[in-house]
Structures are given as C-alpha cells and as structure tokens.
Design a protein that fits this description.
Organism: Plantactinospora siamensis
Number of helices: 5
CATH class: Alpha Beta
GO molecular function: O-acetyl-ADP-ribose deacetylase activity
EC number: 3.1.1.106
Number of strands: 6
Radius of gyration: 15 Å
CATH architecture: 3-Layer(aba) Sandwich
CATH topology: Leucine Aminopeptidase, subunit E, domain 1
Strand content: 15-25%
Order of helices and strands: EEHHEEHEHEH
Distance between the termini: 16 Å
Enzyme class: hydrolase
CATH superfamily: Leucine Aminopeptidase, subunit E, domain 1
Strand order of the largest sheet: 1-6-5-2-4-3
Shape: globular
Number of domains: 1
Protein name: O-acetyl-ADP-ribose deacetylase
Length: 180
C-alpha cells in the first residue's frame, strides 16, 4: 500500500473512501465531521441515523469504524471512526491506532482501493499533531490490507503537513488539494 501525504481539504479527495473523524453520535459535529456532513449532504446523515437506530443506539465506540454512503462527496463511501480525546495522564494511543486499523478493515470489506484519512483526534480532541502523525503512520506503514493500494493522510494546514513530512522520510509527498 502506498502512503501519500497531502496538504488539503479531505472533502475534495477523489478516492473510494473518505474517513471521517466522527463524534460518537454519528450525527455530525464540528471540524472534519461537520465538513464531511455539510459537503456530503443529507444522505450521509440519513444513513447515520439508521445506524444509530439499528446498531449504535449509544453511539459508535471510540476506535471502531462503520461505513455509509458518501452522498455528494467525490468518493463512494465515508468510513466513520471516533478518535479518543487526548489525555496527558492516560495513554490512549492504542485507541487512536485502532481508528486507522479498523477503518482500513472496513475499507477492505467495502472493496475500496484508495482511502483518504484526516489526522484523527488532532483537532478539537487535542491530540498533539506530531504524535497524531506518528500514530497514523505507525499503523499505515505496518498495514497490508487486501485491495487497498493507496492511503492518503490529508493534513489540514501547512504546519500539520510540514510535521508529517518531518516524520515521513522518503520521496516527497504532494502538497495542495491532492485530487487525482
């Protein structure tokens, strides 16, 4: 699986599946979650409501992942995962890594070849950017999901992109919107 760093907006990625850093309610929120729901339109929210009614009455547990349609997004599916809130006193990094691993598992089940990930938990959940990048790359580098040929780590803002580039040696990654 090829890993590509992209500076840009996850809602603009032309991939099979976009990963949503969702809140446990699955009903939209701020940050990445709000942007995906706004750009994707009501079809995503309608499927999320059905998931809440059928399987996740108490919400999607942290670290787990589930898929819906992508609605009006330039993707086929949205894979929703709930990242942990950063804690200076408790190591929640296994839960953060579970978000990436479980999202890749769902992508494989869907038959997705290309997947775009945001930097999960690094926004309002307060995870330090460099460690969030390190956690994401540790999973993506070790993964060998059947059928997934490209994983994009979509970083919002120049500072997050530069942090990821410092942690990812090798050929240069793509700045800009990253639309293929």
């Amino acid at each position: 699986m090829r890993i590509v760093l992209v500076e840009g907006d996850i809602t603009e990625q032309r991939v099979d599946a976009i990963v949503n850093a969702a809140n446990s309610s699955l009903l939209g929120g701020g940050g990445v979650d709000g942007a995906i729901h706004r750009r994707g339109g009501p079809a995503i929210l309608n499927e999320c409501r059905r998931l809440r009614a059928a399987r996740y009455g108490r919400g999607l547990p942290t670290g787990q992942a589930v898929a819906t349609t992508a609605g009006d997004l330039p993707a086929r599916w949205v894979i929703h995962t709930v990242g942990p809130v950063w804690s200076a006193t408790e190591d929640r990094s296994p839960l953060l890594r579970d978000c990436y691993a479980n999202s890749l598992r769902v992508a494989t089940e869907l038959g997705a070849a290309t997947v775009a990930f945001p930097l999960i938990s690094a926004g309002i959940y307060g995870w330090p950017v460099e460690d969030a990048v390190a956690q994401a790359l540790s999973v993506l580098d070790a993964a060998d999901p059947a059928g997934v040929t490209e994983a994009r780590l979509v970083l919002y803002g120049r500072s997050a992109f530069e942090a990821a580039q410092r942690l990812r040696p090798g050929p240069p990654s793509r700045p800009g919107p990253g639309i293929s």
